[in-house]
Amino acid sequence: MHKERRQACRRTRRLDDEPLRQYVRDKLMIGWSPERISGGLWIDCPGNPRMRVSTETMYRFIDKDPQWGPVMRPYPRQARQRRCRGTQRAVRSLIPNRVGIEQRPACVKERTRYGDWEGDTLIGRHRKGAVLTLVERKS
């Protein structure tokens, strides 16, 4: 009972639906782009929510499906360079003649004198804004 319920709750792959996969295959073979196929589904199958697929799913199907991927790979009109979301590294600007925190004098760490400042920056989303914080270490 538990295994049956667990199997039922798994996410299904969109292109496992045979009529949808056949539609995508046929349209790719006649030269339609994945973008055109996705739009054409709304026109050709207006009342069927199972006949919907995103362009990203189609490109993923072409790239990764072991049976149909190699057969379908030559059909999209443009080779698309895909970018993975979330795997981009943070862009850090390099400050010329920067002195690292590990090279500061020992007396700064002790916080015994006034005039030793510590600063940090916070860059906003899409680099639209910035905040600079400055803290005097002793006070």
Model description:
There is one protein chain. This protein has helices at 2-8, 18-29, 34-44, 55-64, 69-72, 106-110; strands at 117-123, 130-136. It is elongated, with a radius of gyration of 28 Å. The protein folds into 2 domains: 2-72, no CATH class; 101-136, no CATH class. 35% of the residues lie in helices and 10% in strands. Strand 1 (117-123) and strand 2 form a beta hairpin. It is of the alpha+beta class and 139 residues long. The chain has a two-stranded antiparallel ribbon with strand order 1-2.
Summary tags:
alpha+beta; 35% helix; 2 domains; 139 residues
Which shape, going by the Cα principal axes?
A: elongated
Evaluate the radius of gyration.
Answer: 28 Å
Average predicted local confidence, pLDDT: 78
Number of strands: 2
Largest sheet: 2 strands, antiparallel
Distance, first to last CA: 65 Å
Strand order of the largest sheet: 1-2
- Give the helix/strand class: alpha+beta
User: Uncertain runs with pLDDT below 50, 5 residues or more?
Assistant: none
- Helical proportion? 25-40%
Order of secondary-structure elements = HHHHHHEE
Tally of helical segments: 6
Residues in β-strands, percent: 5-15%
| Domains, number | 2
How are the SSEs placed, and which strands pair?
Blueprint: H1 2-8, H2 18-29, H3 34-44, H4 55-64, H5 69-72, H6 106-110, E1 117-123, E2 130-136
Antiparallel strand pairs: 1-2
